[in-house]
Design goal:
Layout (H helix, E strand, L loop, with lengths): L1 H18 L2 H8 L3 H8 L2 H21 L8 H18 L1 H12 L11 H21 L9 H17 L1 H8 L6 H19 L2
């Protein structure tokens, strides 16, 4: 099952739901289309399982950060930098999310688990934010979902738009030093937004 999901992730990330082929997934996993349909019901069912697993994996990484054990400013920087690193090293995840947005969330809307999968992300930010408020380091009046959206937007763009941005601006921001600087700048932006 894990191998099918891994191969299907690459297939759907590269070609989208409409272009992804069950034949190619079956061949790459040395299984049969019949077996894939047995486990997932349909191509759309497999696509939804890939989406759910992609979000589950991201939430698992976040849960292993133990943000509650870090000072609020350090925890926030850790969360932003980890999100940046995840997105940068998991381009298929970004492409899947982009594809699902082009579908207007039609398949995620069918998921019975996607909302529950994402509750811990907002809960962790809420707790982190509350601790920062109580220590007097974060400003009042911010919304945890908005904080999450801001972190996502700043870290997502670097992968989702890397090709067009690079071509338009003839930008060579892909070197290690440039990536490290961008990562630090994004963490600084989020911190400055939230600090008193």
């Amino acid at each position: 099952m894990a191998e099918i999901l891994r191969v299907a992730t690459a297939e759907f990330a590269a070609k989208g739901l409409s272009g992804g082929r069950i034949d190619a997934i079956a061949a790459a996993t040395r299984t049969s289309k019949r077996m894939i349909y047995y486990y997932y019901g349909s191509k759309e069912g497999l696509y939804l399982a890939v989406l759910e697993e992609s979000y589950r994996s991201m939430r698992q990484i976040e849960s292993e950060l133990h943000l509650q054990d870090l000072e609020p400013e350090v925890a926030l920087r850790t969360l932003v930098e980890t999100t940046f690193d995840h997105h940068r090293s998991h381009e298929p995840y970004i492409r899947l999310v982009m594809n699902e947005n082009m579908q207007r969330g039609a398949y995620l809307a069918q998921s019975k688990t996607i909302r529950e999968l994402n509750v811990p992300a907002i809960q962790a930010i809420s707790e982190l934010y509350e601790r920062g408020l109580n220590k007097g380091v974060f400003r009042a009046g911010l919304d945890p979902v908005d904080i999450h959206a801001s972190i996502s937007a700043l870290t997502f763009f670097n992968v989702s738009n890397q090709h067009t941005f690079g071509l338009i601006f003839k930008d060579a921001r892909q070197g290690d030093d440039a990536v490290a600087l961008r990562r630090a700048n994004i963490a600084d932006m989020v911190l400055r937004f939230m600090l008193k």
